[in-house]
Amino acid sequence: MTNTTRFALLLGATSAFTFAVPATAQNTAPDEDNHAYGDEGGETQVIIVQGTRSGRRVQDEPIRVEVIAGEEIEEKAIMRPGNIAMLVNETGGVRVQVTSPALGAANIRIQGLEGRYTQLLADNLPLYGGQAASLGLLQIPPTDLGQVEVIKGSASALYGASALGGVINLISKRPGDEFEAEVLGNATTRNGQDLTAYTAGPLSLNSGLSLTAGAHRQSGQDLDGDGWLDMAAYDRLTARPRFQWDGDNGSSVYLTIGAMTEDRVGGTLPRRTVPDGTAFPQTQETERLDAGLVAQTPLSDLATLNLRASAMRQGHLHRYGGVVEDDRHTSLFGEASVSGGSSATSWVGGIAFQSDGFRSEAFPAFDYTYDVPGVFAQLEQEATLDLTLAASARVDFHDEFGTQFSPRISALYRRGNWTIRGSYGGGFFAPTPFVDEIEAAGLSRLEPLGELEAETARTASLDVGYADGPWEANVTLFGADIDNATRLREIATDRVELVNIDGTTRVRGTELLLRFKQDGFTVTGSYVFVDASEPEPLGIGRREVPLTPKHTAGLVGMWEEHGKGRIGIEAYYTGSQALDDNPYRTRSRPYLHLGILGEITLGKASLFANAENLLDVRQTKYDPLLLPQRAASGQWTVDAWAPLEGFILNGGIRLRFGGH
To answer: How far is CA 235 from CA 221, 261, 265, 270, 571, in A?
Structure first.
């Protein structure tokens, strides 16, 4: 069985892979959604999407899916080998927002929606929990990723409560028919180091094994000399073995186990203080274990049984000045579904169960366990040669927030070089204590949660794409209405409570994309406009949603030749943002981020260098990071609205062994 055939058997399962088929095998017209579409060795790379459950090519999906694949992942891996933040941050409409300047924690905001609404998956499994902690994004190396799928807008119909704003699905590489290995070493001018390794190979004709491991460290950096670390120190170790088996009858089993440990130190330096004269070290020790299973087997020529399951346990030991919080997050997930269809129709239906829990030794009043069984169904129909319709729905029976119905309908119209997609969806989010401010400051000043209601949203999008030869263009209009959004409310100088705000949070926006790709050269221009407003805290009038720039834009140029190397330049503009509880300014300054990347390949080895933030933009050049006095929530810093680390140069070596 060839490697291509082996992975073709996985198309009905809930894992995914980017594989090649001859260009004559099917219609392979270029499409604006495919970041890695092109010819390689006489074959056309066909991107198969699994985040939508249907296993279609990306250009055939009624739901628009942004796909980052192949060489683009390799490019971002040498820019930031320790985590996936840069990998997703440079996708239009996706923004990585720092939530804790003390520790560097960040989450992913999609099309102006809060980061807690984004579901982070690994091979369609919630290995990082139902609500991934903000540091989770910074603890995932891109070493073994073969594909990243971004679904924007409510995906609760597919994935339940945690996908109110969208999904980031990290698809791993799969072992091939030959042994392959990669080792990457990296160092930065801010005294950071990364060492990652990936190895994979066959165990037998139908099975393979892979292992990814990494060691990462960063020394603390006080760049403005105020005694507070602008870059937190950390030491992190990760390991993840994966096993893949494919039967001759179309059955398959995928198993993964992950382990991660990290110690992170921020806050004040030894013998330094915050403005009230006290020391305030802020630290976090993390240990995470997870395991996942994806399996499928044919029931007949027309139907396939799919199984998914995962478990995660993550322990934290936090220190916020003199307060120590020892807590544990757990997540259990299981799903069984049956899928099938004909040439014009595909369908899937199934049942699911997810349990997310939290236990705190210091503050047991915030303990919770959410048990959520659910049922779901999806139908896609090629109504005509040019028109495909899709509908999905899910009913979740939440033990705390009752029965919740999440629908989604989509349509795809393709004629010649034009593509038009429309989508509408609804979903919900089960509130937890962990809004951004509490993730940054801890639970010590938060009142026990009262009678909160589930946050609900309705999202819609319309996008028009055009592709002709080396040119691609796309325009997207999107919007979202969120009801019962939760916010912190100050009730004393040292106490806050979490409440549902009255009224609707509204997001409206536009994405523009233009790309030219030919003979190894790729030039991509993008622009995103976001108008996000919410009710004023006192209930009178409306205001801009803080930390949501109206205007962002990017221009990236890359030349790449397989076996020789690559060179690229990038420029990203971030416009002014409304700021909340910042005594130094009410609006941020706009800024420009410039970078340049180079890599040269010498046989099995390649040398690379990457310069980020060439203009040395740094927030503390304009205002202090520390507040004059501690906020009611417990934070000692203002929100991060610009880079905190300034200019960084990194470089290293990548070694490859085996493979094709």
So the answer is: 14, 8, 9, 18, 31
- Give residue for tokens 């009410």: 586
Q: Which residues have CB under 8 Å from 125's CB, separation 6+?
A: 256, 292, 294, 308, 309, 310, 333
For 65, half-sphere exposure in the C-beta direction (CA atoms, 13 angstrom radius) is 28
**Amino acid identity of 374?**
G
Distance CA(218)–CA(206), nearest Å, equals 41
- Tell me the pLDDT tens digit for each residue of 486-545: 999 999 999 999 999 999 999 999 999 999 999 999 999 999 999 999 998 776 889 999
**Domain count across the chain:** 1
Q: Which residues contact 64 (CB under 8 A, 6 or more apart)?
A: 33, 152, 421, 423, 461, 463, 476
CATH number at residue 424: 2.40.170.20
| Side-chain half-sphere CA neighbours of 123 within 13 A | 30
| Nearest-angstrom CA–CA distance, 464 and 490 | 44
Residue 660 CA to residue 650 CA, distance in Å, equals 29
* Cβ(397)–Cβ(374) below 8 Å: yes
pTM equals: 0.90
Q: Which domain holds residue 323?
A: 3-658
Query: CA-CA distance, 610 to 475, in Å (whole number)?
Result: 31
What residues contact 364, with CB distance under 8 A and at least 6 apart? none
Strands 118-122, 166-172: pairing kind: parallel
Are 384 and 347 in contact, with CB atoms under 8 Å apart? Answer: no
* Predicted confidence (pLDDT) per residue in 56-79, tens digit: 788 888 888 888 887 888 888 899
- Give me the residue label for tokens 């190397």: 565
